[in-house]
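Meet my pick.
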Amino acid sequence: MKFGGTSMGSAARIRVAADLTAAQQRLRPTAIVVSAMSKVTDLLLDTLRHAENNDADAIAQNVATLRARHHDTARELLDPAALPAALAEIDSILGEFERIAKGMQLLGDRPPRSVDEAIAVGERLSAILIAAYLNGQGTPAAAINSARVVITDAVHGNATPLLDLTRAKAAEHLAPLLAAGTVPVLTGFNGATADGKPTTLGRGGSDFSASIFAYALDAAELWIWTDVDGIMSADPRLVPDAKVLDEVTYAEAAELAYNGAKVLHPRTLAPLVEKKIPVWSKNSFNVAAKGTHIAPALSTPGQGARAVTSMANVAMVSVEPASAEIPGTRIMARALDALALVGAEVLTFSSSSYRQSFCFLIRKDELQVVLQALRETLALELEHGYVRPVEVDDNVGLIAVVGEGMRGQAGLAGRVFTAVSREQVNIIAIAQGSSELTINLVVPRSGIEKAVKAIHAECGMGR
């Protein structure tokens, strides 16, 4: 089971997480993965920024804030007998973090390896708190830094697990604990290279950690505890009658996450697919809610469009050869190579057939590095006018309509487009993969809410 930041956000929430853990441990061997307490990772990153800028006062203030929050939580959670050891562990870990921050202050820089080591501190502190509480309540537990178990490549900030090596480490470090009836309390988000250099797993990292451990331990199920009742047909802040989906497939969950829904990140699902390990998305604030079951296939197939999601913090980049005589496919290939080199995610891609111009959507926080990569890669073509200047529109949004049952459903795309046009929302670009699992629309940002509501209603997704 994995507990997110809000599920670990206070002493009260940690008690709930521990009770859920203990209840499952009484039924079957259970391991848990924990995130940092809510907002802690942001505070850690803020501290490192201040360190790079030589702001010693801000470093000291942030470390004091971190210490006070975790000390106060420990005092609220733990018996007097267990408290001193927990406080000493908290202080030791925060001491490591402060040393890293002060090293960055001296350098005036934030080396990626040091950043990865530093920002895993939040998860390590959470693991100490809940493990100590579980032990105090009679459920044996051991806090474990996942850097000891999850072996990754050396891509700092977005590492990829080496599953065979991780599986061997899990057999060495975790299987004996499970066999002895002890709950391994594992840090989410982090790992290490084979030679011990700290790494982190990028977006959705704690969920990804949980799926890695589920794979490595041959888990029967993976439960992801969040602060919502499950995966919904739309964002309820935009669509009041959005409903919780009883079940979705791995592919549907991956598409929804990739296109902005707060669902498991696509990378999270990858280790589970091979072994067909089912996942439950559940709400630790409403434990009676059934949640959403994520499985290889739907028990009732052919349900059409099942969810619509959106992203606003995106930008559309357009590239156009100056003449139809310029080999557009070669320009496309080089542009995509440039995006791959900087690790940018292409959210959607669309091209014309004659001029071979093309556009793609990326996250706005990746825009500057993408533009730099494109200009460097296409420098010769741009300089000689073979390619027109790269255009950017950052006043757009992405809408994705998702459902395995859309395959071959005649007229569905037309209904979606008509529903959007009725709301006077202009469709700037369209993309649909050959699997027919997702229809992507790029629209003006101001039209996102109207378009989402219209599609949701047209496809009968609501309660």
